[in-house]
Amino acid sequence: MNRLALVLGLALLAGCATVKSSRVRPDYETVDKTQVKRLVVVTQPLPDGKQEVGELWSLVARRYVNQNRDFIARANVALTGSPEDTSFKGLCAEGLEGILWLSPDVKRTGNGVEAAVKAQLLRCRDGQEIWAAEGAGSWPSEDDRYKELTVQYTRELGPEVAPYVAPTFRLLSATLDTLPRPRLNDADVEEKIELGE
Predict the structure, then answer these.
(1) Planar angle of CA 167, 70, 52, nearest 5 degrees
(2) Alpha-carbon span 76 to 54, nearest angstrom
(3) Could you give phi then psi for residue 102, rounded to 5 degrees?
(4) Which partner for 92 in 70, 124, 161, 191 could form a disulfide, CB atoms 3.0-4.6 Å apart?
């Protein structure tokens, strides 16, 4: 009986799995851990074809990696169309070392959102991939756990984003939790504190 409960529990957990795959360069610890810390977050193409929702994705991701993954995400953008240059060299402004690219596939369904993301962390100096992950799922727009978050982002970005906040946060937090953690020195820590996120 206990074994049956364990198998059912594991099956339920697998059914809730959001992250489908993730990988990190084998040389991350020796090459990028101390060199790629300052990022710009790019969402392209726009999720559900909406600029506001793209801005939501980039802002949620920027704040999440600043608060939970030790990166210093200095900027975020949402761009239309498909990327012409998937190394995003044009966005590697002075002081930035990496691009966190989110390529979403999002659509509203009934009272919720179906979403998938292909995410990559790319080095600015050569456009090489450091990390990549894919995640997907379907979530209700109304979720009591994310009520305050929905109010916050709706206030910041407008009422159009409200149905997307909870599903976006659930997908991106699970996916971004597979990012590696850079090693910050004392100056980096002070810089993060100044960002205030």
Answers:
(1) 35
(2) 10
(3) -110, 120
(4) 124
